[in-house]
Amino acid sequence: MPAVDVSYTEDGPAGAPVVVLSNSLGATRAMWEPQVPDLAERFRVITYDTRGHGQSPAPGGPYSIDDLVDDVVGLLDRLGVERAHVAGLSLGGMTGIRLAAREPGRVHRLAVLCSSAKADPQSFLDRAAAVRSGGTAPLASTVVSRWLTPAHAAAHPGQVAGLEAMVSGADDEGYAACCEAIAGLDLREDLGRITAPTLVVSALEDPALPPEHQRVIADGIAGSDLLTLTPAAHLANLERTFEVTRALLGHFDAAGGTP
AB hydrolase-1 domain: which residues (predicted)? Predict the structure, then answer.
């Protein structure tokens, strides 16, 4: 399938090193809003909507993880970016893993948050079928209940409503095709091919992709660092904003070249 021109936003100094942020299944690039201001003080930050999400096109499926990687490579090419730091959460992390293994020259440093090298295929196939029959809206509250711990969700009802609107706003076919892309991937052999210095972030209370998934990633990527956060569920960057932002800044700053 040809790459699609995904919708994106740029923040920060034009001449600074580039950081690309890739969203979770069901979310949009707006999920990274807590991190963007601090990152943009030192980096040229590019957030984008994965195909089928937000303002990006939603071509008919099937999709593969390589299709999602092709979209990122196409975006970098459009922006004249040869090499970037890449951070992705969940589906975004899977995209980052595959990108770093397949296109090592394009990834300077990698951060993989609350993601997996191989998830349970049947659960994602079942979700794809449910979305095709009834749309994303009926699933929104269940999906978002995995994104935040109950205590955080109870204290932030406005955030919960905004996240549920994100899920409901995803293109039904695009969301389903992304579910099937996750169901079909196995990135475990890719881990050993990754040469980019890698930070893996795990959330102790993540019911969607529990910490054992991140341990597999960290064990498979030579020299990677594993950071476990608690309390935090699947969208750890929202619940542990300070810790995730500090970790990303430290990881990418270690490459040098930042103002």
Answer: 17-240
Distance CA 179, CA 177 (A): 5
- Pair of tokens at residue 221: 């990527």
**Structural domain boundaries in the chain:** 8-118+185-253
Q: What is the rounded CA–CA span in Å between residue 6 and residue 86?
A: 16
User: Distances from the Cα of 246 to the Cαs of 38, 54, 190, 195, 227, in angstroms?
Assistant: 9, 27, 27, 23, 12
47-98, pLDDT tens digit by residue?
999 999 999 999 998 999 999 999 999 999 999 999 999 999 999 999 999 9
Cβ atoms of 228 and 141 within 8 Å: the answer is: no
Q: Give exposure, 45-61, as e/b (b: 16+ Cβ within 10 Å).
A: bbbbbbbbbbebebbeb
Of residues 203, 191, 151, the one with CA closest to residue 24:
203
Residues 77/3, Cβ–Cβ less than 8 Å: no
pTM listed for this prediction: 0.97
Q: Are 90 and 22 contacting, i.e. CB atoms less than 8 angstroms apart?
A: no
**Is the N-terminal amide bond of 62 cis, ω within 30° of 0?**
yes
Specify the 3-state DSSP secondary structure of 42: coil
8-118+185-253: what fold? Rossmann fold (3.40.50)
204-223 pLDDT tens trace: 999 999 999 999 999 999 99
**C-alpha torsion sign, points 123, 114, 178, 219:** negative
